[in-house]
UniProtKB/TrEMBL annotation:
EC top class, as a word: transferase
Protein name as annotated: Aspartate carbamoyltransferase
Domain Aspartate/ornithine carbamoyltransferase Asp/Orn-binding: 160-308
EC identifiers of the protein: 2.1.3.2
Pathway(s) the chain acts in: Pyrimidine metabolism; UMP biosynthesis via de novo pathway; (S)-dihydroorotate from bicarbonate: step 2/3
Gene name of the encoded protein: pyrB_1
Lineage: Bacteria, Bacillati, Actinomycetota, Actinomycetes, Micrococcales
Positions bound to carbamoyl phosphate: R54, T55, R104, H134, Q137, G270, P271
Organism per entry: Agromyces marinus
Length: 317
């Protein structure tokens, strides 16, 4: 694997292979010494042009547990705030000998530009670009689903026939986009639920069903309900009347949660707006995988970095 930029380009074999490597990395997390020497001597740069807590810390932990040297770069307080371009930043990292770059950027397509421009000779891993994609989040979500469904027998398994309902701010969600493509590749059946104002203009090419009525979508007793955060920071207008109306119509409140089968997984990529898109009862229940997703994120990102930097590189992804 040369780069990891999008789930849309992952084959089923590649996706399952990455999830299987993540199983090996998860076993490392259970050891007393949670480190492998695999990437000793490699340098990983976390290049974050947007604020992040979970993703940045998760990638840092993943790289360090593989014994890589880690450089954390934040746009705030750097030369970017003085007008330095992505090209100049990349060439600086190239001069420093970076082997891998984990990039989060507000502009959709920035990781692809970095990977194909020739500005830097390093593996590029997309940690979220604008409203485009967030591949490792989708991979950790799939990893979490697979483990909940198959337990220790999950190695080599896909998600064939698993029904997943993704609810909320589809318009601004890179998590939704990455999940739609990856889940379809793994055989899952995806339904998107959102207010009409929070659905992209054209989703006819997406491998998912579209529904506007959350109660109707939940009546089918899905295996997974994934709630998305309302991304107010990306909204420059009124996309729904008010928070109370949104929670009443499209939120996973106590009443809706009580009607779900006990086997239904409740997911959220975080950070959560409790009381808006998800009730505290649902978020903190045994059906919730929120904490598992955070823990599994380290294992999945260890797997991605391992495949990116260990020398086992094939075609670009």
């Amino acid at each position: 694997m040369i780069h990891l930029l999008s789930t849309r380009d992952l084959s089923r074999e590649d996706a399952i292979g990455l999830l299987d490597v993540a199983e090996d990395m998860a076993a490392v997390q259970d050891r007393e010494v949670k480190k492998l020497p695999t990437l000793r001597g490699k340098t990983v740069v976390n290049l974050f042009f947007e604020d992040s807590t979970r993703t940045r810390i998760s990638f840092e932990a993943a790289a360090k547990r593989l014994s890589a040297d880690v450089i954390n770069f934040s746009a705030k307080g750097s030369s970017v705030s003085k007008g330095e371009s992505l090209k100049d930043t990349a060439q600086t990292l190239h001069a420093m000998g970076a082997d891998g770059v984990v990039i989060r950027h507000h502009a959709s397509g920035a990781p692809f530009t970095l990977a194909t421009s020739g500005w830097i000779d390093a593996g590029v891993l997309n940690a979220g670009d604008g409203t485009h994609e967030h591949p490792t989040q989708a991979l950790l979500d799939a990893f979490t689903m697979r483990r909940r469904l198959h337990g220790t027998a999950s190695r080599g398994r896909d998600l064939d026939g698993v029904s997943v309902v993704i609810v909320g701010d589809i318009l601004h969600s890179r998590v939704a986009r990455s999940n739609v493509w990856l889940l379809e590749t793994l055989g899952a059946e995806v339904t998107l639920v959102a207010p009409p104002t929070l659905v992209p203009v054209d989703v006819t090419g997406w491998p998912a069903n579209l529904e506007y009525d959350l109660d109707r979508a939940l009546a089918g007793a899905p295996d997974v309900v994934m709630m998305l955060r309302i991304q107010a920071e990306r909204m420059h207008g009124a996309f729904f009347p008010n928070s109370r109306e949104y929670a009443r119509t499209w939120g996973l409140d106590d009443a809706r949660f009580a009607q779900l089968p006990a086997s239904t997984m409740v997911m959220h990529p975080g950070p959560m707006n409790r009381g808006l898109e998800i009730a505290a009862r649902a978020a903190d229940s045994p059906q919730s995988t929120v904490r598992e997703q955070v823990a599994n994120g380290v294992s999945v990102r260890m797997a991605a970095l391992y495949l990116l930097l260990s020398g086992e590189r094939g075609e670009a992804r």
